[in-house]
Amino acid sequence: MILIAGLFMFSGNAISKNKSGIYMNPNDFKAGKLAYESDCPGKIKLHDFFGSTPYVTVANNGMKHKYKKSELFGYKDCSGITYRFYKNDVYQIAEAGPIFIYIQEQSVTKTKGFEVVKTYYFSAAADGEIQPLTKANLKHKFSANSQFADMLDQYFNGSDISAYDNEHKTFKVNYVFGKTQNNK
Fold first, then answer.
1. Phi then psi for 19, rounded to 5 degrees?
2. Mean pLDDT of the chain
């Protein structure tokens, strides 16, 4: 009985150490500085039940603050997952590497119910334009790096551009990009 009570106390303490909050700008994100940081469960409301809305509400210390998504960088939820706001949409930051990789999950109607499909995006910087993660888009964005374009063709000839490299613990596209930076 004491052991079970101790486990509940430990798990309660572990949950309360998680923090959620918003990142006001890319520099705050890079520094890991959360504004309106709160113990979980967090009090961030996206108002996205019936489509995307241009604002979020953050409750902190009994006060509510309403922000336009366009005025914020993003937020961190209680699971430790970080999201970025871009043009009133929310993108999960899957990797903040030399190339930022984002994921959006969307429900797709199937003949028998729904299926959740992940769509991958990228940006060249924390505050860069978010666009679909395709070889063509990467080649266009990094056109000054011809070695990267060549390596994209070599590494992703018929394979998934959004593949994760378990050996190097990074998305494969960031591994390939890093190889071009090390050769300079």
1. -125, 145
2. 85
